[in-house]
Amino acid sequence: MILVYFILLVFLQLSSNSANNQNFENYVGCDMPKSDVDLVEFSLNLEYLEAEFFLWVSLGYDLDKFAPELADSGLPPIGAQIAKLSPLIRDVITQFEYQEVGHLRAIKDAITGFPRLLLNLSRESFVTVMDDAFGHPLKTPFDAYANDINYLLASYVIPYVGLTGYVGANPRLQSSTAKRLVAGLFEVESCQDAVLRALLYERRKERVELYGITVAEFTNRISKLRNKLGRHEIKDEGLNVEPKEILRIVYESGKENKLGGFYPKGAEGWIAKSYLRHGD
């Protein structure tokens, strides 16, 4: 237990230092080729999702109260709520929330971007994910906000998709400005993923309340579902991920042009919209 807490402190400190050391103000007004702008813009979809998920769970409100300029008069999320967490887990998620708000600022300082899009963070969204992961409805609908373990499992669904997306995007970026920005985002997301995995690993043999299924089995099922939806065998290995594979996962449909899941009206930006226009 002491070792895990030490790891948490180290990773949170490293990720916070990384965010602080990035001179994001220098990005304002820098020129990027359109392809770089499109890739950076695509990341806003995931950063809005993470920021609102962590904000609501840790503080009980959204960007409209915390940083309304970043919400930019966008639609409020559906079904988000505060979770029943222990002090330690709530503090960890609060640190994540500050980092994600910093990511939004960094991106919107670099490009125009778009207002917060409609997000579905209701319990029902996570019920669908978990039922799909096990291939049948669980005997009791999964409540992502019920306790530490449920929330950590719900968090395991989302941030890793963004992390692997940054790995896939980085080689395609052309400008040094975009590369520095995405590298900074990737570093912090990596630290967050490591913290989540450490917390879940510590509890791997515990049985999730109401289900009699171990934490380890839940994470295995979630990973297999991501691979299935993304139609790519190595999604959880951290290798190249195409934006369309990310959309297949977060839409929970297995198709980049079939809206739903966490994005009821679809993702925003030129890349996301292009799959709808061309039906690819």
Automatic annotation (TrEMBL):
Coiled-coil blocks: none
Keywords on record: Signal
Record-linked InterPro entries: Pigment-catalase-like (IPR052965)
Pfam family, one: Ferritin_2
Signal sequence interval, chain numbering: 1-19
Transport in keyword set: no
Keyword Transferase: no
PANTHER family in alphabetical order: DESICCATION-LIKE PROTEIN (PTHR31694)
Protein name per the record: Desiccation-related protein PCC13-62
